[in-house]
Each structure stands twice: as structure tokens, then as C-alpha cells.
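== Folding the chain ==

***
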Amino acid sequence: MNFLGILDAGLVSSAAKPVTQPITTKTASQPVHRVLICREFTCPNGKLPSKNTARPDITGGVPELTETRDLPSDWTGQFFRFLSDEKDASPYTQRNYKQALDEFMKWNRDTNESPVHWSELERNDFRLFLRQLGRKQLSQAAIRLRFSALNSFYKFLMRRGLVESSPVKDVTLPKPAKRLPQFLTIDQMNALLDAPMQEFEAERAAKKGTKKKANQVPYLRDRAILEMIYSCGLRIGEICRMLAGEIEPDEHVVNVHGKGKKERQVPIGRAAVEAIRFYW
């Protein structure tokens, strides 16, 4: 039951023809090389392929392992697949990061009149982008969110060996504003936890004397959800994904699936356990 239903280096030559199939050899004496096949190639012995033959004229052995480098235009697609499949980022994080990268690419295209080349960008490019965001009078949190997406993207590219360094790393961002945390008093928290059942009593009183009856189930559900959030300190997304089997009422423990595919066990109070049992 769900509570809310809800290559190493590439070898490139400037005068060779494209090769559409990897070339293999059975020469046992030659070491195995890793080669990056792009639009052109170079043989390990430095010779260029013959112009009159479909296959290159190779005398010194041919690499057995071949790999292809993904085009830069697909780097953003790889990044979002990584966020979704490997990092298990929330839909909101994926949405915010996509909007941030799209906004930068649009700014770069309008400013430089050319598509973005991630491996050729420098720190000054991102400083200009930061200045442009400042002109829009965005909040410091909004600016830092955009650069958090760009920083995560470049970290991904570096781990994949697609770029050597991150030009975003040394960009100085505005410091976040310091503010005191907001909290509820004890009376406010008790009123919030009692609110679902008070709403039920009000609906039942309004329908008294009629053939319609108030349905208690949604109010019991809301009360159980509030008690769980308060007792266990859960995020909204965590309780949305929670299943009944992950609650161990006898042990007063809940198994929580958090961000980044992390799991943890948290204690649950007696009031929350009772609220769940009433709902079931």
C-alpha cells in the first residue's frame, strides 16, 4: 500500500578516410591497444591507409579493442540519464537541472551565435553568465541553483573523461543569505496533528440529519501521514514512496528510502503507530 499513490587518448590523423567497422587482427605478438575511432584513424605503426583499398595497409598489427566517444551534443542526455538511472535524483532535481542547462545553452547561443561547446568553455564565459543572471535580479538561491546544476554537469563530464577540468569550479558566487529557521510551537504542532479529525467532526456535524455520511478514511489517512512525518522526521518524497511492509510497528522502526538510493532506519513514536493502525 502506498500512502499517496503517488579511452584513453584518441589517435587521430588528418588525411585518412572514415572507418565504419572496427578492425581486428590475430597477431599474437602485438600488444593490445585501446584506440578511439573518430572520423579518421591512424595505424599503430604510423602508416596511413592505402587509397586504393577498402582496408588500410597495415604491417605492424592492429588494435583489438576499439571504443567510440559520444558526441558532445549527447553529453547532456547522458547526464540526465545518469541522474535518473544511477543517482536516483528526484524529479524536481532533474527538472531544475534541465531548466538550468537549457537556460545556459540559450544564453550562450544568443551571445556567441553558435551552439555550446562544453569542452571549449572557460571561466570567463560563466562569469559573464553570472553577470547576466544578476541583471535579472534573481535571488541568490536561484543563482546558486543554476550553478549547482552546471557544477554537477562538469563533475559528471570529468568522471567520464570527456573534459579535463571544470571551468565552473573557480567562479565566485554570491553568498547565501543567512536567515533564522522557522518552526512551529508545541501548541501549533498539536493543532496541526489534530486538524484532520477536527475537519472530520465538522463534516459529520454538517451532514447530521441527512442521508449522506461523512467518510472517515481520508481524515485517518491524513492524520497518519502527519504523525509519521512528525515522529520520524521524513521528507515529503520519502513518505510518498513508503510501503506498508517497510513499517515495523512491533519494533517501532521504519525503513526509509531516502535521496540517492540511500536507506536508513528511523524510530517511530507510539502515537504514529496508533494512527497508522486506525487508518488500516
Remarks:
- The two ends are 10 Å apart (CA to CA).
- The longest helix spans residues 91-112.
- The CA atoms of residues 134 and 143 lie 8 Å apart.
